[in-house]
UniProtKB/TrEMBL annotation:
Keywords carried by this UniProt record: Lyase
Keyword Protein biosynthesis among UniProt keywords: no
Gene3D superfamilies for this protein: 2-enoyl-CoA Hydratase, Chain A, domain 1 (3.90.226.10), Lyase 2-enoyl-coa Hydratase, Chain A, domain 2 (1.10.12.10)
One Pfam family recorded for the sequence: ECH_1
Tree of life domain: Bacteria
Record CDD domains: crotonase-like
Recorded family membership: Belongs to the enoyl-CoA hydratase/isomerase family.
Keyword Lyase on entry: yes
Name listed for the protein in its UniProt record: Enoyl-CoA hydratase-related protein
Organism, scientific name: Novosphingobium clariflavum
Length: 260
């Protein structure tokens, strides 16, 4: 399947999705959203694929934001009536239950930072720059920036980023817990694909439930989260992959997973 604004490649059991509008620093317009919704749905439905990596083409940007040119003349009533930006959370985040990683190369600003934060974790190149500069356009984050950034880095730094619109470099992003690893740009894709391949080699139900559990920690109270965690653990103990995983450990051999 070929797309207008993204590239999709299957690398064994990992799907690599590349935002491909380098002339606009991979700015996110409606076509990018439509293409990503389709690509993530195909990844989710393909039983041979265990993890995805999302990155940006070129060395300069992961994505420099929602497409300002597309939005500049749009009437406010349309932003509301179309529930503009809603599709990102409902179709890209909620509908994708398998794990995926953002490999952030260069600018991740506004919607670009928000898209990276939709991933299960972020691996950044040393030249990565994160920011929520919407305030400078007279607006505010609309794809989760004020919410996911605050949960990721805490109130003080999220306020700093949203109110000043300044950029955070990769070292600060790692210190703040926004990204899990920082690597040189020329190693970014290898590192992200290696991590994705390790995840894709895990028992698939356990991978999905581990993802769901960590996300629950983001969204609920500790007590409710602990109950959910125990229930999911208990469900996993009934799977064939649990029996196989424990037998493989005892027999000192790699497990062979069925996703059952
Ligand atoms: N949307 C559309 N086009 C963009 C965007 C964008 N977000 N970012 C860059 N581009 C385009 C530029 O217009 C330029 O195109 P052209 O050559 O046709 O003029 C091309 O990409 C290269 O960009 P620059 O020449 O600006 O490259 P620089 O290296 O000089 O600067 C920056 C790089 C610093 C990343 C700069 O491009 C920049 O500041 N971009 C905008 C960053 C930004 O503000 N992002 C937030 C966008 S808003 C958002 O995501 C949430 C929704 C807010 C609603 C807004 C309603 C109006």
């Amino acid at each position: 399947m070929s797309y207008e604004t993204i590239l999709v490649e299957k690398k064994d059991n990992v799907t690599l999705i590349t935002l491909n509008r380098p002339q606009a620093l991979n700015a996110l317009n409606s076509q990018v959203l439509a293409d990503l919704i389709d690509a993530f749905a195909a990844f989710e439905a393909d039983a041979t694929q265990g993890c995805a990596v999302l990155t940006g083409s070129g060395e300069k940007a992961f994505a420099a934001g929602a497409d300002i040119k597309e939005m500049s003349d749009k009437p406010s009533a349309e932003f509301y009536s179309q529930d503009f930006f809603a599709g990102w959370t409902s179709h890209v985040v909620k509908a994708t239950r398998k794990p995926w990683i953002a490999a952030v190369n260069g600018f991740a600003l506004g919607g670009g930072c928000e898209l990276a934060m939709m991933a299960d974790f972020i691996i950044a190149s040393e030249n990565a720059k994160f920011g929520q500069p919407e305030i400078k356009l007279g607006v505010a984050p609309g794809m989760g920036g004020s919410q996911r950034l605050t949960r990721a880095v805490g109130k003080s730094k999220a306020m700093d980023m949203c109110l000043t619109g300044r950029m955070m470099d990769a070292a600060e992003a790692e210190r703040s817990g926004l990204v899990s690893r920082v690597v040189p740009l020329d190693q970014l894709l290898d590192e992200a694909l290696k991590a994705a391949s390790a995840i894709a080699g895990m028992p698939p139900l356990a991978a999905m439930m581990n993802k769901e559990m960590v996300n629950i920690a983001f969204e609920t109270t500790l007590d409710a989260g602990l109950v959910m965690e125990r229930r999911m653990f208990q469900v996993l103990t009934a799977t064939e992959d649990k029996a196989e995983g424990m037998a493989a450990f005892v027999e000192k051999r790699p497990g062979v997973w069925k996703g059952k």
